[in-house]
């Protein structure tokens, strides 16, 4: 059976009854006028044959039997009551017709549309002559039809589908008019100016034991309008006064979370996590609507926040509402991303601390729902915003690294998964650059984003994989004492990627990058106790053009190796750059060997490096200052080796006894060893030099800003003078014109 079309169903539902009524009226009209057309044809035929149609001559042309076989026409009775009788019979026929037609339509709905289309056109095609005859023969009935049913006299065929389309157009017009009325109604409601009295009434409502939900919603709507006041969007409330805006901000941010908590209080579980209590579904639904409305306002406020006090207030208010926001996963993710953006891009240290405190608290409170989002979003935001690294941004970037590393201790298995994915991504970039050695592929690796990412992972592993942290984690997680952290498995791949990055481009121009990553590996080796052979990476620079070629004098400023990963080509071959590289070499060598200054195997560890350094020192044409520095370093290494040999001469165990070996010189501080004291002094000297260098850089930048400011003020003064001179010229022209007229 064919499927009934949508148009047919709609016709059956809305237009079938009207069509049946119109069809029955047409049938009634046909019954009333009878077969007058056939009579006219017969009369015309008789006239053509020369016979009159008189009553007395009826039997002359035919037999009696044929006469009675012929259909007899009953003449219409002309009476004053005819119209009433006709009307009554019409109504009876109409009801019978409706019953029969409705029975047929109930049997087959799909036939109704097509039958209405075919029959209505055929039954309604009537002659205008029939109307004229009806007007002559029965003027009263014609008048009745004209007064009561004008549509019946109009026998133009009508397509039911046209009726449907016309009705649809009428419905569209009604809907459009309704929308216009709603818009006009909304516009009248938008012009509600928020006053201080309104804000105070909302505050009073929020301080009640059972605050009104309507008042809370009004305050939230006004808050949303205030937050989006600079946009083109229209809202019911309007905030145009500064004092009202400030008061509304304070009231809503401080009081609204408390009012929500009174209406739907939460409970704390064993972990201290806040869980919503049981309240009525209707109340919960209305509260959720308000919280969802308010959370979007908080997101708008976080995106454009600039003041530290306001940022702290917004974050505290958001944290109080956080159990209610947990219902919407999408809003939750957007909220975490917005807070991360504040943490990563804010130039104010206190704002960064407040943003991290929020992320840290919600991640510890809801680790399953928030921790993974926070870890991934923070790393992504950190990598995006560390592209610009200099003397001024380094403290902020270091804070981001250290604070982000704190969250990886909450769930070390999750931290391992996130860390492995990101270190693997760094390895993919490195492999593509090695396999396709082009300038663009090198740029994809040799940039601050990759260097800061590698340094972050080393800091995170230093924090989570040192013996003390692993012991605390074992106790907290209920693991056996001495069990290693799952994050320790990331050390080897990280070291491999870092060494591959260092050796990708062994150019003197990228020595700062080499020094930066070597420091990162030294820190990792010191914290985790993993031995990383770094001396070959450091000693490779001795074979570069910086030492093999005679340097030239230059007036360039000294290089700050802590805040750059690449130097300008103008520095290559200069004495100032060679001097900086020599200082870095001595420092890194001393820092590396200082890691093992208390090791029982220190004498054997330094033997190959000392031989190599002595040979390099004997080479002719070298830098005298650097030669003296190398001599001092070699002497300190030998002195520390003798110190270790003297202390291990008294031990009663061999190298196979690892427990006793690990306790060797355990009670001695590393600064009291010969090499340790030397490194401590070198650090103090470097710190003093770096302070002087940074102060000079800051002074230069400040002077440059002043020059730019003075330059801008000078341009403004010149523009003002030009405008004044133009005005004077216009005045002179006016005077000349007046004199001419005179």
UniProtKB/TrEMBL annotation:
Spell out the Acidic residues composition-biased ranges: 165-174, 713-742
The question of whether Signal is a record keyword is answered with no
One Pfam family per UniProt: Noc2
**What InterPro entries is this protein classified in?**
ARM-type_fold (IPR016024), Noc2 (IPR005343)
- Subcellular location, record wording: Nucleus
Q: What SUPFAM superfamilies does this protein's entry cite?
A: ARM repeat
Whether Aminoacyl-tRNA synthetase counts among this entry's keywords is no
- The UniProt regions of compositional bias labelled Basic and acidic residues, in chain numbering, are 18-27, 88-99, 125-135, 175-188
Region of interest called Disordered, as start-end residue ranges on this chain: 1-56, 75-135, 153-188, 693-742
Q: Which domain of life is it from?
A: Eukaryota
Keywords on record: Nucleus
* This protein's GO CC annotations: Noc1p-Noc2p complex; Noc2p-Noc3p complex; nucleolus; nucleoplasm
Q: What spans are recorded as compositionally biased (Basic residues)?
A: 1-17, 28-37, 78-87
Q: Name one GO biological process term.
A: ribosomal large subunit biogenesis
Stated family: Belongs to the NOC2 family.
Query: What is the name attached to this protein's record?
Result: Nucleolar complex protein 2
- Source organism per UniProt: Dekkera bruxellensis (Brettanomyces custersii)
